[in-house]
Amino acid sequence: MFYNATRLKSARASILFYSILFIAVAGCSGSRQTAGNTHSSPGNSVTHVKNLKNAERFQTLGTRSWIKLSWSKDQLPAGLKYFTLQWTDKSNHQTKTQLVNVSSNRFYMHPVEPGRHYQLIVKGTVSRSNRDKTLFSREVFTDTTWHLSDREAAQLDIPSSASLPPGMALFFHDEFNDSLLDRNKWFDSYYSTLDYNNKVQWPAFQKNQLPKAAFHLNGRYIDLIVNDSLPKIPFFKDGKKISSIQTYDWVTNTNLLPNEKGGYYEVRVRRNFTGHPSGLNTAFWFDSPGPDLRYYYQEGTKINGVSGIRPKGQLFEIDMFENMNAQFVMHGHVDSNGHFVHNLTTDIARGYKHKDNWVVHGLLWTPNAIKHYINGKLIHSYDDPHQIYSPDHFMNVLLGAYGKGGSVSLQVDYIRAYHWPVSADNELPNADFELNDNLLPWQGTATISQVKKIAGRASAKLSPGDSLYQYVYVSPNSHYRLTFSCLGSGKLTAAVGHVKEVTGIITSATQKSYVLDGQLQQNLLVFETKNAPKGHTKTIRILFKNNGSAPLYLDNVVLTHQ
Question: Residue 559 and residue 323: Cα distance in Å, rounded?
Answer without folding.
Answer: 42
